[in-house]
Every structure is written in C-alpha cells, then in structure tokens.
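Batch job 17 of 40 flagged for manual review because the log was empty.
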Amino acid sequence: MIELLAGQDCCLTAQQMFDSLRDDGRSVGIATVYRTLELLGQLGLVRRIEIGPSACYEAEYPSGEHHHHVVCESCGKVAAFEDRALEEAIERLARRHRYAVGVHEVTLRGECPECRAA
C-alpha cells in the first residue's frame, strides 16, 4: 500500500486504494485497507487528510516534502499544488507568533474549470 501511495501525485481515499489493489489482482479486503492505513498513520508513514466527504491518505515523507490541495466543491475533484511563496508566508507567520510549526495543511476550495464552464 505504501508503494501505491508513493506513486501518486495526490491523496487517495481508502476505497480508491482498495479498488486499485483489487485491479492489480491483489486479494485484499476493505477492512484490511483501513487497518493498514491506521497502522501506517501511527508509524508516521501515512497522513490522513480531511478534504471531502471521505478522508484521503497520502505518503508522509521523512524529509517533510509535501504539497497542498485545491478541491472542487461541485464535482469533488482534488488537485495537488506546491507554492514556495506560500511556504515562506507560513514560516513568517510562525516566526511572528513564535510558533514552531511542523506539519501543516492548506486546502483551497472552489470550482474547477470544468464545473465553472458548465
């Protein structure tokens, strides 16, 4: 499952992981997927992200490498993005408030181009 998550550009739901593993011919149950995700989360290898009706999961990298998400509130599409200026703004904010910010999540919500055009 770690290989599956590490190969993704963005997060996946447990159902998406289950479907992908089954499509690859692996006989795994949905309960096993959830138990494995919980264990991997406890080990700091997977991060749970609340960005929609279902939680999503993505690999947690020891280097701190990460991305943020933009979510379409019409169709539910999720896209990952990175922005150095945003990271610098978060660092400035942390210094100003004298916080040692570690993990942080930024989720932007709106409408994707396809839904806006409809």
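Reviewer: the log was empty due to a logging misconfiguration, but the result itself is present. The helical segments are 2-6, 14-23, 30-42, 84-96, 113-117. Unflagging and moving on to job 18.
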